[in-house]
Design brief:
The chain is of the alpha+beta class and 149 residues long. The chain has one domain (8-140): Roll (Bacterial Protein-export protein SecB), CATH 3.10.420.10. Helices cover 32% and strands 33% of the residues. The protein has three helices and four strands; from the N terminus they run βαβββαα. It starts with 7 loop residues before the first strand and ends with a helix. The mean pLDDT is 93. This is Preprotein translocase subunit SecB.
Length: 149
């Protein structure tokens, strides 16, 4: 099948900050998949506008097992990235689709880019690659809206 391109364009993506730490497990018989599944994940993001009309900037931070006091064994991770997006010919795109692209799709793309970086960082680690589980983007957007009141 021939792919149809989205009117949403990712113009630029940058890794702004990262933190990787390995915490040696006390138990030698660690079930790695179960441990990874138990990691707390926190995601925060901020949407802004650039000086160029029609462009959207999105900054996204993902923390995995990043508790300050008592992180679990294994990986303690934080990655933060920034992306610049544009909707091509926004006046030709229906308003509902434009809103979906500018909020849902941009956040989804940022999380996927950061997911890939997390996997690459951990893939050479002692426990192998950590693949961030699927994220409910709609819930993240609702939580952010509620937080901003």
């Amino acid at each position: 099948m021939k792919a149809k391109f989205s009117p949403l364009q990712l113009l630029d993506f940058k890794l702004l900050e990262s933190h990787y730490e390995f915490i040696v497990p006390k138990d030698e018989d660690v079930n790695v998949p179960d441990l990874f599944q138990s990691y707390p994940v926190d995601i925060d993001f901020g949407i802004g506008k650039t000086e160029v009309e029609g462009e959207i900037q999105l900054f996204t931070k993902i923390e995995v097992n990043f508790a300050k006091k008592k992180p679990l064994a294994g990986y303690k991770l934080m990655v933060e990235g920034g992306g610049t997006f544009r909707i091509q010919d926004p006046e030709k795109v229906e308003e509902n689709l434009r809103n979906n692209l500018s909020q849902f799709s941009t956040l989804n793309m940022m999380i996927n880019n950061l997911r890939n970086i997390i996997y690459q960082i951990t893939n050479l680690g002692p426990m192998g690659g950590y693949l961030l589980p699927p994220i409910d983007i709609s819930q993240l957007l609702r939580d952010k809206a509620a937080e901003q009141g």
